[in-house]
Amino acid sequence: MTAIYLGTQGWSYPSWVGPFYPAGTTSAAYLPEYAKHFDTVELDTTFYAIPRQTTIAGWRERTPDGFRFAAKFPKVITHEKELRDAGLEANVFVEAMEGLGEKLGPLLLQMPPSWTAAGLDDLADFLPGLPAGHRYAVEVRHRSWLKEETFERLKDLLQGHGVALCLVQHAWMPVLDTVTAPFVYIRWLGRREDIPDGEFGHVRINRDVQLDRWTEQVKRYQDAALTVYGYFNNHYQGHSPASVRALQARLSGIE
């Protein structure tokens, strides 16, 4: 059966205590409690620095078999070097994340909004140097990538390396339905200005129309025997666990 891993972007939100985590849950208990409900999470902390091995081991030990961690490449690779001469840092990062063992999911190159299609050659130089045997995804956020010829070149490059084009729901890019790997990586993002940081205890924005459409898209990926990884942030609706459950309910036919 095709696997669908749906989760949130991070788990360390005090405003989830009560609405999602039981009252009185301490921060140290967030992850084990989270893993009772969802089987995957996207790590945002790796964007800022490579975690210590003790931290990675703790994540592995506090989650059940079958759990998957997706992780962003550090910003020094994606935002500061923009992939140029970043092979050493990339290899060090991947080697560190291998400490998760079988719980390691896809690794995401989340490129900055300013990164234009002029970076295509840098991407072409960077991808062959990544350690083999892992799932990688690339997220582009500049509309220059959408020009037909450029997009075809990007798609061909990613397909050639088995790297997924990250499919993003956000105001800055149209919704894409392009598969370039044996798996699909989806991110549902909202605008930070729509929901105050830290106030993530309940749904504030109705996304029923979008979720209905995404349900059909994800079902098609299932039918094509593709593994799906999908992650909601709190700004998408206001409370990302509710967003995950809403999509899960649609996929199972229970609404």
Low-pLDDT regions = none
User: What's the alpha carbon Rg, rounded to whole Å?
Assistant: 18 Å
Q: Which superfamily, in CATH terms, is the homologous superfamily?
A: Protein of unknown function UPF0759
The helix content, as a percent range, equals 25-40%
What does this structure look like?
The protein is an alpha/beta fold. It has one domain: TIM Barrel, CATH 3.20.20.410. Helices cover 33% and strands 17% of the residues. The chain has a 9-stranded parallel β-sheet.
Report a brief summary of the structure.
The chain has helices at 30-34, 53-61, 75-80, 87-97, 120-126, 148-161, 208-223, 234-237, 240-252, and strands at 4-9, 40-43, 68-72, 104-110, 136-139, 164-165, 167-169, 183-188, 227-232.
Main attributes of the structure:
globular; 17% strand; 255 residues; TIM Barrel; 9 strands; alpha/beta; nine-stranded parallel beta sheet
Question: Which secondary structure elements does this structure contain, and how are they paired or packed?
Answer:
Blueprint: E1 4-9, H1 30-34, E2 40-43, H2 53-61, E3 68-72, H3 75-80, H4 87-97, E4 104-110, H5 120-126, E5 136-139, H6 148-161, E6 164-165, E7 167-169, E8 183-188, H7 208-223, E9 227-232, H8 234-237, H9 240-252
Parallel strand pairs: 1-2, 1-9, 2-3, 3-4, 4-5, 5-6, 7-8, 8-9
